[in-house]
Amino acid sequence: MTQKFTLAMPSKGAIYQPTRDFLKECGLKIHKPNERQYVGTMPTIPEMGVLFQRVVDVVYKVADGTAQLGITGYDVVYEHPHEDLIVIYDALGYGWCKLVVAVPEAWVDVTNMIDLAEVALDFREQKGRNIRIATKYEHSTREFLHRHGIHHFTLVKAEGAIEAAPTLGYADLIVDLSATGTTLRENHLKEINGGTIVEAEACLIANRKALEADSELRDAVRMVTEYIDASLKGRGYYQVTVDIQGHSPEDIAEKISQNDITRGLLGPTIAPIYQPKQNSVSWFTVTLIVSQKKLLKAVEYVREIGGRHVIATPVKYIFLEEAPTYATLLRQLTLAE
Amino acid sequence: MIFNRNARRIREIERQLQAHMASFAYDLIDMPLIADADIFLTRAGNTIIEELFTFERYGKLLALRPEFTGAVAHHYIQEGLQEPVRWQLSGAIFIDEPADYSLQYQQHNIGAELIGQSGAMPDAETIAMATQGMDKIGKTDWQVVIGHVGLQLHLLSRFNLDRRTYRILLTQRDRLKTEGKQAVLDYLAEILSLDEDISTSSANGAETEQLLDVLLDSTRYGSTMGGRNRHDIASRLLKKHDRGTELEQISMALDFLKAWGALRGTIERIMPQIENFIAKDDVTGRKLLDEWQETLTYLQAYDVSADNIIIQPDLTRNWDYYTGIVFGIYADGHYVASGGRYDGLTQLLGSEQAFPAVGFAYYTHHLLGNNELSSVDYLALGGDDTIAVIQWANALRQGGLRIQIVADNPTIVVSDNQANYQNQTYTQDELIQELTQ
Which ranges of chain A would DSSP assign to H, the alpha helix? Predict the structure, then answer.
């Protein structure tokens, strides 16, 4: 089948494999027939082709409509704003990093952006030149510095090994991505208070005009967002089944519902267990949906009320009554009557 | 809307003002629309910087000109000029994301710059030329508000504050007037780390240890210095430590600014009050005030009525490069022109010499007013024989008439090599004579 739509995603780099893993976990596995090729397919949505690009090119391809959907780092989208881009998910839960201003550790007098504003002025007035900042995030840096009252600076465009720029002497400080801060420390640089320009994760973007013009694309996007929403929602929960002895389903339901943790999304599902010899007290299997963070507390509680044989299984999907992200997306579009 | 049907009005104002400024020997020059952004970023105020229309080409930050002055000063030093010049300019200027959404990104200014002459005479000439220009374009209801950035800075210098603190204080004058001194102090405490604890912590705190580390060339921070040396870092640390002691000075500076900012009124009422701010032994302050007085005297000689002059010593403009007298012309509820003396700009832009300079610009969009333009009279010419109509139109245009050829309802009907106009029949010469009388 010829793919009618295209999802652009990174071809390499820090979020390439995590993106493939993420989509696979969401039920949107990518099939790449040949590792050297730059195209693939998405069998769950046959009309969706996949195009592998550099992270920045993902933004360009979606902005110009070559691809209708794209997954890339939010830092890249932040750096290249475009009126035809719409961000469907700004944080898909992986690829976290932050874009930060980092100055030499030796600048012990600089601890925040106010200090940096003063130092920028000192450069101008005492050294007769602008403070130099190495970065590949020129737009974000410029906008951020102006917002903090720093107007006199020169951006030094750099690709790769930016952290070395102050040591090598072609910049005074840098603006770059940092996840753990290790690379900054190894290069004798430090972050400063208030110097985080943006925190970013992988994000899903789309071409606004294409979405507004094509109802079939919207249907495909609805499917993508349904899977992602359901998967993201499911990740926070476990399905717990437990056998509990009681007089009636109502008796069990009352005990289960007394605790907020075990009350579930709507309430417990209770099914009787068949026992050949009828006793006055019966056994029931109770199925609950429990927040991952509160799983152990839930297990402790069901034990307290007589539960046995607790089985906890990760939830793969939770489909709500509507796809919330798709509904939000529709509200941002101007659709023809 | 500045453009569209206002084009004719803009050209008309332009023509009148250009002729007016030419009578003061201001020669018309033009500057590029696009220039190195640094030309405009030098000494631009925060508002200007935020509204500067910038873009990059081949790693160089360029800007669409937001005004003429920076480009003119840059041109003066690029040309290596030494002699005084009087230049006038007219054309588009650009504002990114204008605060007033009724305006457009592209606007129009008409301005003049006098570079190479200092003193009261050029200041008076500039103000007088600007105000007389208002009369030339038929706007007689105006006031000129005059302040003195140089005197204000001089009086503030008594408080021994660093330049950044001065600048921040000057941006707080509105807050000082509306919210009071404590609100400004609270704000400054936040952005200048004005905390009395700083001075005490400096005696034994961690920052002293850091200072010693820097001075003793500690290697724990590595060799990465990013264009600064240990002296830079140590002296700034000391400055930070001293800031706690600046609090009292800042408080006194705010008291001064509050009293200074309350002055606004006629020459007769305000100038004596300004004199009270200047100490008897303050030679520089006296000199600046004398020059200001002299400028006002010369304005009388230019027939600028004292009734039209408001003295407001804390008047400032959006550009930080002004060094002396500043002024704004107020009409129809807006400042329609502004300018002032900017003696240091050429040096800031790279010249070894600080050439004295003064200039101003009219904001053309505020000069257009709501007056309906007088309609232009065109004569409608028509007839069945198109070739004859074209030939008649040519002849009438050469005779000085404005002719439009129309298909329906012509005022002048051409037929059989004659024209019928208001039920009379004319030859070409007769008609030209009739209509040009």
Answer: 16-25, 55-63, 74-79, 113-126, 138-147, 165-168, 182-186, 208-213, 215-235, 249-257, 295-304, 324-332
pLDDT of residue B200: 43
Q: Alpha helices of A80-203 — where are they, by DSSP H?
A: 113-126, 138-147, 165-168, 182-186
Tell me the C-alpha distance between A238 and B239, whole Å.
58
Residue B23 φ/ψ, nearest 5 degrees: -70, -15
Specify whether the CB–CB gap between B90 and B18 falls below 8 A: yes
Residue A30's nearest CA partner among A65, A56, A3 is A3
Q: Do A109 and B49 touch (CB under 8 A)?
A: no
Cβ neighbours for B21, distance < 8 A, ≥ 6 positions apart: B88, B112, B129, B133
Q: Which of A121, A149, A187 lies closest to B46 in CB terms?
A: A149
Least Cα distance to B66 among B101, B102, B85, B41 occurs for B41
CB contact at 8 A, A128 and A141: no
Q: In whole angstroms, how far apart are CA B243 and each of A1, A39, B160, B194, B434?
A: 72, 61, 12, 6, 83
Of the partner residues A108, A152, A166, the one whose CB lies closest to the CB of residue B213: A108
Chain-chain contact of B46 with A119 (C-beta, under 8 angstroms): no
Secondary structure (DSSP) of A243-264: EEEES-HHHHHHHHHTSTTTS-
What chain A residue is nearest to B239 in terms of C-alpha separation?
A109
Whether A104 and B221 lie within 8 Å, measured CB to CB: yes
Give the type of residue at A337.
Answer: E
Nearest CB among B59, B222, B227 relative to A105 is that of B222
The token duo for A134 is: 């190495």
ipTM above 0.90, yes or no: no
Interface check A189 vs B, CB under 8 A: yes
10-residue mean pLDDT profile of chain A (337 residues): values are 88 93 94 87 94 95 96 96 93 95 92 89 82 92 87 82 89 94 92 95 96 94 94 90 89 87 80 75 87 91 90 90 90 83
- Count of CB pairs separated by less than 8 Å, A with B: 86
Q: Which residues, 6+ apart, have CB-to-CB distance to B102 below 8 Å?
A: none
| Burial label, B381 (beta-carbon count in 10 A; 0-12, 13-18, 19+) | buried
Q: Classify A286 in phi/psi space as left (phi over 0), alpha (psi -120 to 50) or beta.
A: beta
Three-state helix/strand/coil letters over B190-237: HHCCCCHHHHHHHHHCHHHHHHHHHHCCCHHHCCCCCCCCHHHHHHHH
pTM above 0.80, yes or no: no
Phi first, then psi: what are they for A133, rounded to 5°? -125, 120
Q: Which residue has the tokens 């505020």?
A: B366
